[in-house]
Prior knowledge:
Layout: E1 6-8, E2 17-19, H1 30-34, H2 36-52, E3 54-67, H3 72-77, E4 83-97, E5 102-106, H4 113-121, E6 128-133, H5 143-146, E7 149-153, H6 165-175, H7 180-194, H8 209-221, E8 227-231, H9 239-256, E9 259-263, H10 267-273, E10 276-281, E11 284-290, H11 291-298, E12 301-308, E13 322-327, E14 330-336, H12 340-350, E15 353-360, H13 363-385
Parallel strand pairs: 5-9, 5-10, 7-8, 8-9
Antiparallel strand pairs: 1-2, 3-4, 3-6, 10-11, 12-14, 12-15, 13-14
Helix pairs in contact: 7-8, 11-13
Amino acid sequence: MKNNLKVNLSLPTDSIKVVLPRTGPRWRGWPGIWGTERLVTLGRAFYTRAMDGIEVCDLRKSYQVFRKQSGLLASVRSLWSREYTEVQAVRGISFQIARGEMVAFLGPNGAGKTTTLKLLAGLIHPTSGTATVLGHVPWRREIAYRRRFALVMGQKNQLWWDLPAQESFRLHREIYRLDPQVFERRLAELVDLLEVSRLVNQPVRELSLGERMRMELIAALLHDPDVLLLDEPTIGLDVVSQRRVQEFLKHYQAQRQLTVLLTSHYMKDVQALCRRAIVINEGEIKHDGSLEEVIDRFGSFKVIELLFSGDTPPQGLEAFGEVFEMQFPRAKLKVPRQQVPETLAGLLAKYPLEDVGVHERPLEEVIAELFTSTRGAASAATASETPR
């Protein structure tokens, strides 16, 4: 019999087994050096890490959309013969999110963000590919998984419209079978953090949009989930409400070590909450890394801000870059990143300047430019493939 070492990590963490060789010079003394318990602990830690986060591998989702022509004759014809168009919402995406990580999921409308969140929530089945969240396959809809995640969609309500939010919270207590004392303690904590104690007994339809969103967050967190999927939670909110939601999410995630996947069109949300961003467009991942890397990789320009001294407006400033703001004595130029040093030298040599500043472009501008360029490239590729 060959000497071998087997670690079975396909079992639950409490059942991990280590099979050690009993004879043979190659392994003689090995258990004494490492210890069986240490190996079990190592295997269990590895297995637990794999089980705690989100892992997506080559995930795809396509839909068949019915195409109906206008007119009565076309309507009658569609009863027997229908035309469908296949829409590829998600095209083979892969990524991993560790436990306790908050990641931004960015993309334009129709990029595949919400579809991905629905797949991870188990609301829809994929066309192909695999995904695990907390060690569960989402679309199997196991009760053990449904107790451990929450999905909040900024454009969907889970609270009863005509009832006070307090009644919807009690319904959640029954659905998730929460202990009454635990429920009351958790509810009091969330109500206090989100400053809505005076609103919980008010009908939901009488609340403002920002107040309703805070109630939605309470409902989503009452059962203490390990994973939180947020689909544009601050859409339509005013600046004050956005900031309250941001501060709450930042505090609560750090305190509970939630794994959060956030989609948002507000870059201030992203910058305030996330260090890592996954950029998706046309159903494909275009970038996965830090926010700084997004700017470094796709931000091909920097902004030079100038403060002129003297009373004479500068002439010929366009020769140094794109002047996109001019309010003498201040001006702003957009300059290619590689040309910033020589541009600064030329400006200092030609103009009397009181102050000079070099800044990165705002994240929202870089993201918008990335989406536009990607869409243009896709359109060009489609046009080149079209037979003439």
